[in-house]
Amino acid sequence: xxxxxxxxxxxxxxxxxxxxxxxxxxxxxxxxxxxxxxxxxxxxxxxxxxxxxxxxxxxxxxxxxxxxxxxxxxxxxxxxxxxxxxxxxxxxxxxxxxxxxxxxxxxxxxxxxxxxxxxxxxxxxxxxxxxxxxxxxxxxxxxxxxxxxxxxxxxxxxxxxxxxxxxxxxxxxxxxxxxxxxxxxxxxxxxxxxxxxxxxxxxxxxxxxxxxxxxxxxxxxxxxxxxxxxxxxxxxxxxxxxxxxxxxxxxxxxxxxxxxx
Length: 261
Prior knowledge:
Layout: H1 2-27, E1 42-44, E2 50-53, E3 56-59, H2 62-71, E4 75-76, H3 82-94, E5 107-108, E6 111-112, E7 115-120, E8 128-137, E9 146-159, E10 166-170, H4 174-187, E11 191-198, E12 203-207, E13 213-216, E14 219-225, E15 237-238, H5 243-259
């Protein structure tokens, strides 16, 4: 009995070391942007509730982002005012266009987003692709500014599970939205290179600030934009993550094939 208890304790200790120390350390990588390593990768609502995870990033200045999103067919979101709030309600109820519909503010490192963009799916603002962006580094490894963002897909208007306020509900597989935006920018010729760094880490049962479920492999796609909107005719350079991270992503994709919604 004593030997059995010792064996169980040893296995439990080994599991804890692997699950909480070794594997997270092996899957964490910031080799292409080391100054992001100690930053939070989660946004928050005005009330301090954990919000959407960071899953996208840009290398470039504000003007580069504005040009790139315009070329990709995305629209800058209006600010939240009484007028814009009434307009978005009318857009949803009457099924009429509102391409610059506002997005509710989220906070990263204590401040609201610097930029927000969206692309409607359908006529109204009920369903849309969108991203909020924050300027986080004046100079990254490439010698250009670094921006981080939270990219999600609004699938319907409803009530917040936490506050009861009217809000958009997001689709759970946020990696699809991250990949969609990267593809849009590549197709527009706005991407010089792409690579990933570690975000929140693999998350199967995350919930954002409205109580919506999200699932992610925990990686952030960093898009190095072309300069001054000079379109790139050849495919962008895609830099692979470390081998262990690729293995983690393979396992995650297999898991999503079974449990994904």
